Amino acid sequence: MLDSASHPTIKGHFIDGDWHPAARGFDDLNPSDGSLFARAPEGGRAEARAAIDAAARA
pTM of the prediction? Predict the structure, then answer.
């Protein structure tokens, strides 16, 4: 789920074989110059629990 090659935007979390939309995200900045490198989803407790449960079933 990437939007562009120059500044990829990941719009969700890949959990248990499916994409789940993220309610919010954050900018990942290049530490050498502060420019935008990518946009990433911000996960919370629910996403962490879903990923842990999926891993336990794997």
Answer: 0.70
